């Protein structure tokens, strides 16, 4: 009777081990089969040049006075005039964001007195966005008249909707590029390719802005209309594709 119990126990233990390790053993078999399969790994890239549909202008009003409160008051008046002028040319207030506001002292150094406080500067920086690219020159010219004296940048890009659409187009072409490479490689050895075993997107959307550098507008009130040409921006996509074959 004891031998029977021992034999039954051994069978039970073996069954439990089989149930527990069955998926692992099965996975090892699948892994071994996968390792037996050869593969061709290729990359594909594609770039699309797109006309921008949105512009960003970063500019500031800077005022200097001996008293900080006077500099602040003058700055606020000038900025109110800038907002008014922007509204007149069709830029809604929701498309104007304050990005930096600073009040800092100004000093002058002399050998006799050392560092001497001469006054204060107030800088109020805003960012304007518009989908009407024809308004960029007007934004620059008209706001300068009202007190803008520092333009940090003018950049052109793509709205989310356009960027997503063009990125997907570039992504499709990147996959085709990878397929073409794989077919070229396979043809050398007479390999017949099946559908891709794995396709991995190269990363986040990557596209280039067209940017104009900082412009000092302090002495530009009598300048002719500022010429702005947006040019094109690039949308890039990349993929990694693996083809398996026996």
Number of domains: 3
* Distance between the first and last residues' Cα: 55 Å
Classify the secondary structure makeup into a structural class.
Answer: alpha+beta
The CATH class of the largest domain is identified as Alpha Beta
In which range does the helix fraction lie?
25-40%
Radius of gyration: 33 Å
Give me the number of helical elements. 4
Largest sheet: 6 strands, antiparallel
Please, what is the CATH homologous superfamily of the largest domain?
A: Protein of unknown function (DUF541), domain 2
Q: Under CATH, the topology of the largest domain is which?
A: Alpha-Beta Plaits
Please name the CATH architecture of the largest domain.
2-Layer Sandwich
Structural overview:
- The protein contains four helices and ten strands, in the order H-E-E-H-E-E-H-E-H-E-E-E-E-E.
- With 246 residues, it is of the alpha+beta class.
- It has three domains: 2-36; 39-49 and 162-205 and 239-245, no CATH class; 52-157 and 209-231, Alpha-Beta Plaits (2-Layer Sandwich).
- A hairpin with a 3-residue loop joins strand 3 (96-110) and strand 4 (114-130).
- The longest helix has 35 residues, at 2-36.
- It is elongated.
- Mean pLDDT is 82; it is low at 2-19 and 23-34.
Short description:
By secondary structure, the protein is of the alpha+beta class. It is built from four helices and ten strands, in the order αββαββαβαβββββ. It has helices at residues 2-36, 68-88, 136-145, 160-188, and strands at 38-50, 54-65, 96-110, 114-130, 150-157, 198-201, 206-207, 210-212, 215-216, 233-245.
